[in-house]
Specification:
Elements lengths: L4 H10 L7 E4 L2 H13 L5 E5 L10 E2 L7 E4 L2 H11 L3 E3 L8 E2 L3 E5 L2 E13 L4 E7 L6 H7 L4 E5 L8 H10 L4 H20 L2 E13 L5 E5 L2 E5 L8 H4 L9 H8 L3 E4 L4 E5 L2 H13 L6 E4 L6 H12 L6 E8 L4 H15 L5 E7 L2 H10 L5 E2 L3 H15 L1
Parallel strand pairs: 15-17, 17-18, 18-19
Antiparallel strand pairs: 1-7, 2-4, 2-7, 3-5, 5-6, 8-9, 8-11, 9-10, 11-12, 11-13, 14-16
Helix pairs in contact: 2-3, 5-6, 8-10, 10-11, 11-12
Length: about 400
Amino acid sequence: MNIHEYQAKQLLARFGVVVPGGEPCTSPEEAREVSQRLFAVGHKKVVLKAQTHAGGRGKGVFKNGMKGGVRVCKSSQEVFDIASYMIGHILVTKQTGAEGRLISTVLVTSAENIKKEFYLAVLLDRNTANPVIMASTEGGMDIEEVAEKQPEKIIHETINPILGLMPYQARKVAVGLGLRGEMLHQAAKLFHGVYRTFWECDASLVEVNPLCIVQRPDGKEELLALDAKVSVDDNALYRHQTIQAMRDLAEEAPLEIEASKYNLNYIKLDGNIACLVNGAGLAMATMDIIQHFGGRPANFLDVGGGATREQVSAAFKIILGDPNVQGILVNIFGGIMDCNVIATGIVGAVKETGLKLPLVVRLEGNNVATGRKTLADSGLPIISGTSMAEAAEKIVLAVKNSV
């Protein structure tokens, strides 16, 4: 689950990470009041940040014509005016698509006097099955771009999950960033706070980009998290009711929200051939092979290893909620799963929805003979595929012929 920037900063602050002053606001009047308090303590400028999970806010354009979802303001009146053009309006960025996202909240925060920018993140290293802290002197840039062009500028430090981030590791990373003296001590403390946020919130990613050395209005320099992104493992949300409450359904696709109600992993894509598969790896392979035969997958849908008839029925309804779908490929390998349970669910779902689209089903594994018989005896126009390649080829051809 992703959360907004202001929510990520709230979590970080809970664990001792220094973040800029400011508050989320849902009206221009509220934004003006917050900015007045920031100006009163000595800040010369404030920043308005449209809150959306989509990236590229700064270069985005509102449908009302205003450019930029991140704006620097010099007065409370300017804050009010710009907030009026942000709140309640749709922002289009490179990640939202043409439909854009409705902005209901803006973060009004202090515009800091930045002296130096860094990149910092804690995430899970799947190669070692351990958390890893990553840092770079190239703050403000996409880490993928740094990894491609200047990989030597990325610092990695693997963390033992039993011991946690050790003090010497925090200092090692700080030294690698060129920090010394008081700034080194600030960095070590901040790194521990970022790691605790990752660990205690069951996050899959905590990213601070940029992490900055700033000069405060009183002239002192301080290290703070200027921008933050936190993604939390869905499987652990039951342990974090406070974080669950941060979920913003307006930032999620309606079909993905519906899928989550049935514990289905669904991601909408821009193709026309829907996939219903058990297992993430098999789902990825299924999308690849559809593409190989000239088709375009309409979704990623993993029903999991122990799907019930009800989940299969729900999956079909979710698939049919996408108007771009022109055919469906079901690809099931029954290990834990009983193929006949899937077959029974498919038959029930086809009858219930009155499906008219081409449907190809490939079953293999546990109780497959019974499952295939259930499909054959249903009297429904279900096309059978004995292998994944054959099934993919058949659904691509069936969709082309139907179109």
